[in-house]
């Protein structure tokens, strides 16, 4: 099976990104490019990573009126990356138009459109008391996943803790992409709904996104290999 661990390249510049990949010999691993790097370097960063054989998840989390998202997605489609995303809270019309934009601007590659349900930095308490969204994160994330599924998305971004329920609601082939992964549970940082790679595998995640547990590790190469080893252990021990 293909490597499901996307390394979050949350660096300020291409220069620092390249230095990190070169130093720790992480050439060719799947990567996630987010707002920090993309807003600095623009589309050329995608070409540079492609030249280095990385699968790319472009994490720009579009959230606007349907027409604006469709037109933006038409341009993003030309970048020919593997995964792109929107916020599910933009609603069903926005998700449908995002898919339309992706198809209109696409180069024939099967770019997956996924929708962020509830950010992994949000707790039940923040959702209920600050945002005044009623229900548990689990309930709302699975509702938003179902909405995304019915609107033509290929999957969602959620935490490991919602994966099982989302698979039950949307079916096994609906992708669950899970950030909030920690190799050491004590390093939560700004994340609230975290899990280990082993738990992610047991709960049925398809793709893991890992940033700081690898980039800030003493030995990032070893940390990446540890994540892969845990993931594979989850499979070998028949836990899935
Ligand atoms: O709900 C979400 C959606 C996206 N992310 C992104 O994933 C990485 C996680 O980084 P860590 O350092 O492993 O916490 C980061 O780029 C986020 O923008 C997310 O964490 N949660």
From TrEMBL:
Q: Name one GO molecular function term.
A: orotidine-5'-phosphate decarboxylase activity
Which gene is annotated as encoding this protein in its UniProt record? Answer: pyrF
> Catalytic residues per the record?
59 (for ompdecase activity), 61 (for ompdecase activity), 61 (proton donor), 64 (for ompdecase activity)
Q: Name one GO cellular component term.
A: cytosol
Q: Lyase among the record's keywords?
A: yes
Q: Alphabetically list the UniProt keywords.
A: Decarboxylase, Lyase, Pyrimidine biosynthesis
Q: Name one GO biological process term.
A: 'de novo' pyrimidine nucleobase biosynthetic process
What EC designation does it have? 4.1.1.23
The record's comment on protein family reads: Belongs to the OMP decarboxylase family. Type 1 subfamily.
**InterPro entries, sorted:** Aldolase_TIM, OMPdecase, OMPdecase_AS, OMPdecase_bac, OMPdeCOase_dom, RibuloseP-bd_barrel
- SUPFAM superfamilies to which the protein is assigned, alphabetical: Ribulose-phoshate binding barrel
The record's section on NCBIfam families has: PRK00230.1 (NF001273), pyrF (TIGR01740)
Q: Name one Pfam family in it.
A: OMPdecase
Organism encoding this protein:
Cerasibacillus quisquiliarum
Q: How does it assemble?
A: Homodimer.
Q: Which residues cross the membrane?
A: none
Pathway connected to this protein: Pyrimidine metabolism; UMP biosynthesis via de novo pathway; UMP from orotate: step 2/2
Name assigned to this protein = Orotidine 5'-phosphate decarboxylase
Q: Which residues does the UniProt record annotate as the domain Orotidine 5'-phosphate decarboxylase?
A: 4-227
What is the recorded function of this protein according to its Swiss-Prot or TrEMBL entry?
A: Catalyzes the decarboxylation of orotidine 5'-monophosphate (OMP) to uridine 5'-monophosphate (UMP).
Q: Its catalytic activity?
A: orotidine 5'-phosphate + H(+) = UMP + CO2
Binding of substrate: at which residues? 10, 32, 59-68, 120, 182, 191, 211-212
């Amino acid at each position: 099976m293909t490597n499901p661990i996307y390394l979050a390249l949350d660096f300020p510049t291409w220069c620092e990104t390249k230095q990190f990949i070169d130093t720790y010999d992480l050439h060719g691993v799947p990567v996630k490019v987010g707002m920090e790097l993309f807003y600095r370097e623009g589309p050329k960063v995608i070409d540079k990573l492609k030249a280095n054989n990385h699968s790319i998840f472009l994490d720009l989390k579009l959230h606007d009126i349907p027409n604006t998202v469709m037109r933006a997605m038409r341009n993003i489609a030309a970048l020919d990356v593997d995964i792109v995303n929107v916020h599910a809270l933009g609603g069903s019309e926005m998700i449908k138009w995002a898919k339309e934009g992706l198809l209109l601007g696409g180069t024939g590659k099967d770019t997956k459109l996924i929708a962020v349900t509830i950010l992994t930095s949000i707790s039940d308490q923040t959702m209920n008391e600050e945002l005044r969204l009623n229900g548990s994160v689990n309930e709302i994330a699975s509702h938003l996943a179902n909405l995304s599924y019915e609107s033509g998305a290929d999957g969602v971004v959620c935490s490991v803790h919602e994966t099982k329920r989302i698979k039950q609601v949307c079916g096994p082939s609906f992708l669950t992409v899970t950030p909030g992964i920690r190799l050491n549970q004590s390093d939560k940082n700004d994340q609230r709904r975290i899990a280990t790679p082993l738990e992610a595998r047991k709960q049925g995640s398809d793709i893991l996104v890992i940033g700081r547990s690898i980039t800030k590790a003493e030995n990032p190469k070893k940390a990446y290999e540890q994540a892969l080893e845990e993931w594979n252990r989850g499979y070998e021990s028949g836990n899935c």
